[in-house]
Protein backbone atom coordinates (compact mmCIF):
# COMPACT_ATOMS: atom_id res chain seq x y z
CA UNK A 1 0.00 0.00 0.00
CA UNK A 2 2.82 2.37 0.87
CA UNK A 3 4.63 1.54 -2.36
CA UNK A 4 1.47 2.04 -4.44
CA UNK A 5 0.82 5.37 -2.73
CA UNK A 6 4.30 6.69 -3.51
CA UNK A 7 4.42 5.24 -7.02
CA UNK A 8 1.14 6.98 -7.86
CA UNK A 9 2.56 10.25 -6.56
CA UNK A 10 5.38 9.96 -9.10
CA UNK A 11 3.10 9.26 -12.08
CA UNK A 12 0.52 11.78 -10.81
CA UNK A 13 -2.44 9.41 -10.76
CA UNK A 14 -5.20 9.03 -8.16
CA UNK A 15 -5.87 5.73 -6.38
CA UNK A 16 -9.63 5.97 -6.84
CA UNK A 17 -9.22 6.38 -10.61
CA UNK A 18 -6.58 3.82 -11.55
CA UNK A 19 -7.05 0.24 -12.65
CA UNK A 20 -5.12 -2.26 -10.54
CA UNK A 21 -4.59 -5.90 -11.45
CA UNK A 22 -3.58 -8.29 -8.65
CA UNK A 23 -2.34 -11.72 -9.71
CA UNK A 24 -2.61 -14.27 -6.93
CA UNK A 25 -5.85 -14.87 -5.04
CA UNK A 26 -4.37 -16.47 -1.95
CA UNK A 27 -3.80 -14.88 1.45
CA UNK A 28 -1.35 -12.27 0.15
CA UNK A 29 -3.38 -11.23 -2.90
CA UNK A 30 -6.58 -11.05 -0.89
CA UNK A 31 -4.99 -8.90 1.82
CA UNK A 32 -3.48 -6.59 -0.80
CA UNK A 33 -6.81 -6.17 -2.57
CA UNK A 34 -8.55 -5.49 0.73
CA UNK A 35 -6.18 -2.76 1.92
CA UNK A 36 -6.21 -1.12 -1.52
CA UNK A 37 -10.02 -1.11 -1.44
CA UNK A 38 -10.00 0.32 2.09
CA UNK A 39 -7.73 3.13 0.87
CA UNK A 40 -10.10 4.03 -1.95
CA UNK A 41 -9.21 1.85 -4.94
CA UNK A 42 -12.35 0.85 -6.80
CA UNK A 43 -11.20 -0.64 -10.11
CA UNK A 44 -9.52 -3.79 -8.83
CA UNK A 45 -9.24 -6.94 -10.91
CA UNK A 46 -7.93 -10.10 -9.24
CA UNK A 47 -6.63 -13.07 -11.21
CA UNK A 48 -5.62 -16.57 -10.24
CA UNK A 49 -4.00 -19.25 -12.36
CA UNK A 50 -7.31 -19.79 -14.19
CA UNK A 51 -7.70 -16.13 -15.14
CA UNK A 52 -9.94 -13.33 -13.89
CA UNK A 53 -11.56 -14.42 -10.65
CA UNK A 54 -14.96 -16.06 -10.94
CA UNK A 55 -17.13 -18.01 -8.48
CA UNK A 56 -16.45 -21.25 -10.36
CA UNK A 57 -12.76 -21.01 -9.37
CA UNK A 58 -13.65 -21.93 -5.76
CA UNK A 59 -14.94 -25.30 -4.63
CA UNK A 60 -16.26 -23.67 -1.45
CA UNK A 61 -16.85 -19.93 -1.15
CA UNK A 62 -15.35 -18.67 2.10
CA UNK A 63 -15.94 -15.16 3.42
CA UNK A 64 -12.86 -13.63 1.82
CA UNK A 65 -13.60 -15.24 -1.53
CA UNK A 66 -17.12 -13.80 -1.33
CA UNK A 67 -15.62 -10.40 -0.56
CA UNK A 68 -13.30 -10.59 -3.57
CA UNK A 69 -16.16 -11.52 -5.90
CA UNK A 70 -18.33 -8.69 -4.55
CA UNK A 71 -15.76 -5.89 -4.39
CA UNK A 72 -13.46 -6.50 -7.36
CA UNK A 73 -13.88 -6.58 -11.15
CA UNK A 74 -16.54 -3.84 -11.28
CA UNK A 75 -16.74 -4.01 -15.09
CA UNK A 76 -17.32 -7.77 -15.06
CA UNK A 77 -14.32 -8.61 -17.22
CA UNK A 78 -13.81 -12.24 -18.19
CA UNK A 79 -10.89 -14.17 -19.53
CA UNK A 80 -7.18 -14.46 -18.82
CA UNK A 81 -4.51 -12.02 -17.63
CA UNK A 82 -4.26 -10.54 -21.13
CA UNK A 83 -7.89 -9.41 -20.87
CA UNK A 84 -7.45 -8.18 -17.32
CA UNK A 85 -4.30 -6.15 -17.87
CA UNK A 86 -5.53 -4.06 -20.80
CA UNK A 87 -5.21 -0.35 -19.85
CA UNK A 88 -4.23 -1.27 -16.27
CA UNK A 89 -2.19 1.34 -14.42
CA UNK A 90 -0.78 -1.01 -11.77
CA UNK A 91 0.19 -4.70 -11.81
CA UNK A 92 0.81 -6.45 -8.48
CA UNK A 93 2.04 -10.02 -8.68
CA UNK A 94 2.09 -12.38 -5.70
CA UNK A 95 2.04 -15.59 -7.69
CA UNK A 96 5.03 -17.10 -9.47
CA UNK A 97 7.64 -16.68 -12.22
CA UNK A 98 6.78 -16.31 -15.88
CA UNK A 99 3.31 -14.87 -15.33
CA UNK A 100 4.06 -11.46 -16.87
CA UNK A 101 5.64 -10.70 -20.24
CA UNK A 102 6.78 -7.61 -22.11
CA UNK A 103 3.84 -7.91 -24.48
CA UNK A 104 1.44 -7.84 -21.51
CA UNK A 105 3.16 -4.77 -20.04
CA UNK A 106 2.73 -3.03 -23.40
CA UNK A 107 -1.04 -3.47 -23.01
CA UNK A 108 -1.00 -1.44 -19.80
CA UNK A 109 -1.71 2.29 -19.53
CA UNK A 110 0.95 4.95 -19.96
CA UNK A 111 3.40 5.28 -17.04
CA UNK A 112 2.62 1.76 -15.88
CA UNK A 113 3.63 0.49 -12.45
CA UNK A 114 4.75 -3.14 -12.11
CA UNK A 115 5.23 -4.85 -8.75
CA UNK A 116 6.55 -8.36 -9.49
CA UNK A 117 6.79 -9.62 -5.91
CA UNK A 118 7.10 -13.40 -6.18
CA UNK A 119 10.25 -14.71 -4.51
CA UNK A 120 12.85 -15.84 -5.31
CA UNK A 121 11.83 -15.52 -8.97
CA UNK A 122 9.47 -12.64 -9.79
CA UNK A 123 6.60 -12.75 -12.28
CA UNK A 124 8.92 -11.17 -14.86
CA UNK A 125 12.68 -10.78 -14.73
CA UNK A 126 13.71 -7.17 -13.98
CA UNK A 127 15.96 -7.17 -17.04
CA UNK A 128 12.99 -8.01 -19.24
CA UNK A 129 10.65 -5.48 -17.63
CA UNK A 130 12.96 -2.47 -17.43
CA UNK A 131 12.24 0.08 -20.10
CA UNK A 132 8.71 -1.19 -20.61
CA UNK A 133 7.16 0.24 -17.43
CA UNK A 134 7.65 3.53 -15.60
CA UNK A 135 8.20 2.02 -12.13
CA UNK A 136 9.35 -1.50 -11.28
CA UNK A 137 9.46 -3.10 -7.83
CA UNK A 138 10.27 -6.61 -6.65
CA UNK A 139 10.69 -8.44 -3.37
CA UNK A 140 14.42 -8.85 -3.98
CA UNK A 141 17.05 -7.13 -1.88
CA UNK A 142 19.57 -6.87 -4.73
CA UNK A 143 17.40 -4.47 -6.74
CA UNK A 144 15.91 -1.00 -6.16
CA UNK A 145 12.39 -0.79 -4.72
CA UNK A 146 12.41 -3.89 -2.54
CA UNK A 147 8.86 -4.35 -1.23
CA UNK A 148 9.32 -6.13 2.07
CA UNK A 149 6.86 -6.58 4.93
CA UNK A 150 9.70 -6.12 7.41
CA UNK A 151 9.01 -2.39 7.01
CA UNK A 152 5.57 -2.95 8.52
CA UNK A 153 5.69 -5.77 11.06
CA UNK A 154 7.86 -4.33 13.88
CA UNK A 155 6.04 -1.00 13.99
CA UNK A 156 2.59 -2.57 13.73
CA UNK A 157 3.29 -4.90 16.64
CA UNK A 158 4.97 -2.15 18.70
CA UNK A 159 2.04 0.22 18.17
CA UNK A 160 -0.49 -2.50 18.90
CA UNK A 161 1.25 -3.40 22.15
CA UNK A 162 1.72 0.23 23.16
CA UNK A 163 -2.02 0.84 22.78
CA UNK A 164 -2.89 -2.59 24.22
CA UNK A 165 -5.18 -2.92 21.21
CA UNK A 166 -7.74 -5.72 21.15
CA UNK A 167 -7.53 -5.97 17.36
CA UNK A 168 -5.35 -5.03 14.40
CA UNK A 169 -7.98 -3.45 12.19
CA UNK A 170 -7.88 -2.04 8.68
CA UNK A 171 -7.50 1.53 9.95
CA UNK A 172 -4.34 0.53 11.80
CA UNK A 173 -2.93 -1.15 8.69
CA UNK A 174 -3.69 1.91 6.59
CA UNK A 175 -2.05 4.13 9.20
CA UNK A 176 1.06 1.94 8.99
CA UNK A 177 1.10 2.20 5.20
CA UNK A 178 0.81 5.99 5.29
CA UNK A 179 3.63 6.19 7.83
CA UNK A 180 5.88 4.01 5.67
CA UNK A 181 5.11 6.09 2.58
CA UNK A 182 5.86 9.29 4.51
CA UNK A 183 9.29 7.90 5.33
CA UNK A 184 10.41 9.24 1.96
CA UNK A 185 10.36 13.01 1.52
CA UNK A 186 9.12 14.57 -1.74
CA UNK A 187 12.70 15.56 -2.62
CA UNK A 188 13.90 11.94 -2.20
CA UNK A 189 11.04 10.26 -4.03
CA UNK A 190 11.92 8.88 -7.48
CA UNK A 191 11.26 5.87 -9.72
CA UNK A 192 13.92 3.80 -7.96
CA UNK A 193 13.10 4.87 -4.41
CA UNK A 194 9.42 4.47 -3.53
CA UNK A 195 9.71 2.83 -0.09
CA UNK A 196 12.27 3.40 2.67
CA UNK A 197 15.16 1.03 3.12
CA UNK A 198 14.54 -1.93 5.43
CA UNK A 199 17.48 -0.58 7.47
CA UNK A 200 15.79 2.77 8.11
CA UNK A 201 15.39 2.74 11.90
CA UNK A 202 13.00 5.70 11.94
CA UNK A 203 10.31 3.77 10.08
CA UNK A 204 9.51 1.43 12.97
CA UNK A 205 9.00 4.34 15.37
CA UNK A 206 6.87 6.27 12.86
CA UNK A 207 4.71 3.24 12.13
CA UNK A 208 4.29 2.41 15.82
CA UNK A 209 3.07 5.91 16.63
CA UNK A 210 0.65 5.92 13.69
CA UNK A 211 -0.72 2.47 14.53
CA UNK A 212 -1.23 3.31 18.20
CA UNK A 213 -3.02 6.55 17.27
CA UNK A 214 -5.30 4.65 14.88
CA UNK A 215 -6.07 2.09 17.59
CA UNK A 216 -7.19 4.88 19.93
CA UNK A 217 -9.14 6.61 17.16
CA UNK A 218 -11.06 3.45 16.27
CA UNK A 219 -11.80 2.41 19.85
CA UNK A 220 -9.77 -0.79 20.06
CA UNK A 221 -7.06 0.59 22.40
CA UNK A 222 -7.24 -0.51 26.01
CA UNK A 223 -4.56 1.87 27.28
CA UNK A 224 -5.11 5.60 27.58
CA UNK A 225 -3.11 7.73 25.17
CA UNK A 226 -0.35 9.77 26.74
> Unreliable segments (pLDDT under 50, ≥5 consecutive)?
none
Q: Which class of the largest domain in CATH terms?
A: Alpha Beta
Summarize the helix and strand pattern as letters: HEHEEHHEHEHEHHH
- The total beta strand count reads 6
How much helicity do the residues have?
A: 25-40%
What would you note in describing this structure?
- The protein has helices spanning 2-11, 27-39, 63-71, 81-85, 102-105, 126-129, 153-163, 170-181, 201-217, and strands at 19-23, 43-48, 51-52, 90-93, 113-116, 135-138.
- It is of the alpha/beta class and 226 residues long.
- The chain folds into 2 domains: 2-138, NAD(P)-binding Rossmann-like Domain (Rossmann fold, 3-Layer(aba) Sandwich); 149-216, no CATH class.
- It has a 6-stranded mixed beta sheet with strand order 3-2-1-4-5-6.
- The model has no long low-confidence stretch (mean pLDDT 94).
Sum up the structure in keywords:
226 residues, alpha/beta, Rossmann fold, 2 domains, six-stranded mixed sheet, 11% strand, globular
Task: Explain briefly what this protein structure is.
The chain has 226 residues and is an alpha/beta fold.
SSE map:
Elements: H1 2-11, E1 19-23, H2 27-39, E2 43-48, E3 51-52, H3 63-71, H4 81-85, E4 90-93, H5 102-105, E5 113-116, H6 126-129, E6 135-138, H7 153-163, H8 170-181, H9 201-217
Helix pairs in contact: 1-8, 2-3, 7-9, 8-9
Amino acid sequence: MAAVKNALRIVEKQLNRVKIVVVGAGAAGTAIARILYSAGARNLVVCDKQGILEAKHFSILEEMQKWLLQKTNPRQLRGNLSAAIRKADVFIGVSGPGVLTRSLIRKMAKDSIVFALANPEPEISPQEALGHCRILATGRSDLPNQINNVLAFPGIFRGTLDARASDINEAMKLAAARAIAAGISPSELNEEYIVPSVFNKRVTRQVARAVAAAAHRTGVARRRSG
